[in-house]
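Let us begin with a simple case.
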Amino acid sequence: MISSSPPPHQLHVETAEPLLPEVDPVSTSRPERDARITAIVRANHGFIWRLLRRLGIPEASVDDATQQVFCTASRRVSDIAHGSERSFLFGTALRVASDFRRSARHRERPDAGVAERRDLGPTPEELADTRRARAVLDEVLNAMPMELRTVLVLFEFEQMTKAEVAELLGVPVGTAASRLRRAREEFKACVRRRLARAEGMKGRTP
């Protein structure tokens, strides 16, 4: 599997989730509220960025989409139960991704080399290979139903356990496992269809 990582940000993203301050939504002061929002962002920024990227938002727009998710969380922080922060962000990210996909169908594919230009290390050939691989992966994921695509991204890219995926989706573990099996089968089927199209196009080339 090929994964992409969020570009550098001024805000450092912790790999381990810090304990979020428990806040009384009724009597929350502004400093307490700001501290909780900051903790939520630090704990979940990388996860949300990667999730949105793999749910179909192009790299050129994923920063804006990520900001939209956290702006929503900021406005509704008093409504988010302690311990449910990631679930809230996950649901919000799904809606943002869905809205973006509907509104952006007519747009041209963005420049796939934006992220790579930040890194001067790889050679042009390596960057070209990476761009092609990412484009193929995006094409295959885009062809999958969102329900299956989501569980595949969480398990394969985010390396979550089936129990963690089930908890995030709000479904029994057995349901999450069943969706994962279907997602893997669908992913393979999409790859086969893409390869068949590529072979067909080569056969028509004079």
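The second case is a distinct protein. As before, the sequence precedes its structure tokens.
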Amino acid sequence: MLNEHTLDQLRTLRLDGMVHAIEEQATSTAAAALGFDERLSMLVQREVAWRDARRVERLLKAAKLKVSMACVEDINYRSSRSLDRSLVATLAGGDWIRNAQNLLITGATGCGKTWLACALAHQAARSGFSVLYARAGRLLMSCRWPMVMAASRAG
């Protein structure tokens, strides 16, 4: 196993995914049978996965989702909800975000608008987009406040 000095250097370089992978490989008999190239490849893959997971975790925390566990894989398509699977799949792809388009979700009280919005936001964060959950009223108030201030100063 690598000595503590090497592990400390990896931590200093913020390669925490590699540190954890090395610690796991030290206890694994299967890893010992692998060649240098294969083990190094596993360490690099682990570091990439570690960083991706941290990035998504950070994006989701900043998103302030009301339903943090909502995800597109768990969407209920029962007939009473009238959700179009192909439309939801297209929205989950994120092209509407890349094309700077907006999405407005409407429906009756209790039909799952918030959950669906959070699921799409969760998917967008997993795709690397920054997202922020905001209810319409609060969003409109945050947009209107600077305009009211500007109007009162001009008058």
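Residues 36-63 form the longest helix (28 residues). The mean pLDDT is 85.
Keep these points in mind for the review questions at the end of the chapter.
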